[in-house]
Amino acid sequence: MAPQKRTQTVGRNDAPQQQQNRDQGNGRRPPAHEIRCGRIKATIWENESKEGVWYSVTMTRNYKDGQGQWKSATTFGRDDLLVVAECSRMAWIWLAQQNGTNVGGGGESGSDDGNDVGDRF
């Protein structure tokens, strides 16, 4: 059973929430998770293959066009890049948690099982 979709929001986002169940009518699954950092959104998709479940991430930027309509883009300006990096970091942590990996950053728990993300860097 797929985990419930959750949205994590950081900062202010004036973009209207998209209809959460927009894809149910055409057989597409909703995202596994969404992370919003202002105008930037990381959408995490769950995929299945013979080898098991894996995830992919799409990054988008919300903006208003000349007519005041909300649109999304997959290109980012200089001022967006640190926000994109933070959303990517948050998506990476969420994905690590789905795999049962500790993201504490090295040794606080006293565990030396090799599952701590901090042990890999």
**Tally of contiguous helical segments:** 1
| Percentage of residues assigned to helices | 10-25%
Structural class: alpha+beta
Counted beta strands: 5
Mean pLDDT: 79
| Helix-strand string | EEEEEH
In the sheet with the most strands, the strands line up as: 1-2-3-4-5
Unreliable sequence segments: 12-23
- End-to-end Cα distance, whole Å, is 32 Å
Number of domain units: 1
> What Rg is obtained from the alpha carbons, in whole angstroms?
17 Å
Strand share of the residues? 25-35%
Q: How would you sum up the major sheet? A: 5 strands, mixed
Overall geometry: globular
What does this structure look like?
The chain is globular, with a radius of gyration of 17 Å. It has a five-stranded mixed beta sheet, covered by helices on one side. It has 121 residues and is α+β, with helices and mostly antiparallel strands. The protein has one helix at residues 81-98, and strands at residues 6-10, 33-37, 40-49, 52-64, 70-73. The chain has one domain (6-16, 23-120). A hairpin with a 2-residue loop joins strand 2 and strand 3. The two termini are 32 Å apart. The protein contains one helix and five strands, in the order βββββα.
